[in-house]
């Protein structure tokens, strides 16, 4: 899989451009001079086009009309407990809808980049490298695993699956864990976290930067794109609290079994990045550097009106 320089006039299509990763993909592509069309399903932002991926033929027609060279698919139904309660929606949003657009991309000769998760593993012997066998515990993880397999089988060298986890950072909707934590602690309330869940915090702007760079190199297959640390949720929460000058003493860990979550979670999870490290060493910044950049972006006048304040 050889590298390639960026051709002039290349076109990208970002399904879920209103979301956390999708928004940073749009900014990263714009910074590189790539013509990108971004879509939204329920939360409109200026410059994005409406797309209901569940309307399979209409969605495929919309994609074909733009004739992209690369399609990014960070969209999906990522509410893990909701997926457990509604398996049909989970499989539609995380498998059937992206696979429909992956096939449309393939027919155009375009590459398709699908975003997956460490929930494809059972969390017994993590962290996991790309070649570790999958064994998802939840409907969400099973749908993602099935999508990974289908895209690899049907797209071959035109398909790239990117696994990431615990994505945080500045974004337009302000929905990720860091925003929830800052709002909760700023109001003086206690935040209860699963103390026995371990994974890899991943800074959203860095995830987008790395994935676009991988796309520039025409890479295919499966690559983990996560931050360099593997840590428990309480430690992650405490690091965010300290970065925002909030009281980490308000963070309390509880065993996952006591939280009443609807779907099983991998406990000893997280992802190793041997392939990313060999291709783009150091591209994912450590947690402390990411948190410093998070704060800087919140106060960057060039991002005013685009990045949602944390409180």
How would you describe the overall organization of this protein?
It is a single chain. This protein is α/β, with parallel strands linked by helices and 311 residues long. The protein has a domain at 11-175 and 202-227 and 270-285: NAD(P)-binding Rossmann-like Domain (Rossmann fold). Helix content is 39%, strand content 16%. The chain is built from 10 helices and 13 strands. Residues 1-9 have low confidence and may be disordered.
Quick recap:
This protein has 311 residues and is an alpha/beta fold. It has 10 helices and 13 strands. α1 (20-31) links the parallel β1 and β2.
Features:
single chain; 311 residues; alpha/beta; Rossmann fold; two-stranded parallel ribbon; 10 helices; 13 strands; disordered N terminus
**What's the CATH H-level superfamily name of the domain at 11-175 and 202-227 and 270-285?**
NAD(P)-binding Rossmann-like Domain
Uncertain runs are: 1-9
CATH topology description of the domain at 11-175 and 202-227 and 270-285: Rossmann fold
Residues in β-strands, percent: 15-25%
Q: Would you count the extended β strands for me? A: 13
């Amino acid at each position: 899989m050889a590298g390639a320089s960026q051709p002039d006039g290349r076109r990208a299509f970002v399904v879920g451009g209103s979301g956390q990763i999708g928004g940073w993909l749009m900014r990263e592509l714009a910074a590189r001079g790539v013509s990108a069309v971004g879509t939204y399903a329920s939360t409109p932002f200026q410059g994005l086009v409406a797309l209901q991926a569940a309307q399979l033929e209409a969605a495929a027609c919309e994609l074909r009309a733009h004739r992209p060279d690369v399609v990014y698919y960070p969209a999906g139904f990522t509410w893990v407990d909701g997926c457990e309660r509604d398996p049909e929606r989970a499989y539609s949003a995380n498998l059937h809808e992206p696979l429909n657009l992956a096939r449309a991309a393939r027919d155009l000769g375009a590459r398709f980049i699908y975003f997956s998760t460490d929930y494809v593993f059972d969390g017994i012997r993590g962290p996991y490298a790309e070649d570790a066998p999958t064994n998802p515990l939840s409907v969400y993880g099973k749908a993602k695993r099935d999508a990974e397999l289908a895209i690899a089988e049907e797209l071959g060298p035109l398909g790239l699956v990117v696994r990431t986890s615990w994505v945080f950072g500045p974004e337009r909707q302000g929905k990720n864990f860091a925003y929830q934590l800052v709002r909760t602690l700023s109001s003086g309330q206690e935040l209860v976290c699963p103390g026995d869940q371990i994974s890899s915090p991943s800074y959203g702007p860095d995830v987008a930067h790395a994935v676009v760079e991988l796309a520039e190199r025409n890479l295919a297959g499966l690559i983990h794109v996560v931050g360099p640390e593997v840590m428990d949720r309480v430690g992650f929460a405490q690091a965010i609290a300290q970065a925002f000058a909030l009281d980490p003493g308000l963070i309390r860990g509880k065993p996952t079994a006591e939280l009443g979550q609807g779907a099983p979670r991998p406990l000893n999870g997280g992802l190793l990045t041997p392939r990313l490290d060999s291709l783009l060493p150091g591209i994912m910044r450590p947690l402390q550097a990411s948190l410093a950049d998070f704060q800087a972006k919140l106060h960057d006048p060039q991002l005013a009106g685009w990045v949602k304040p944390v409180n």
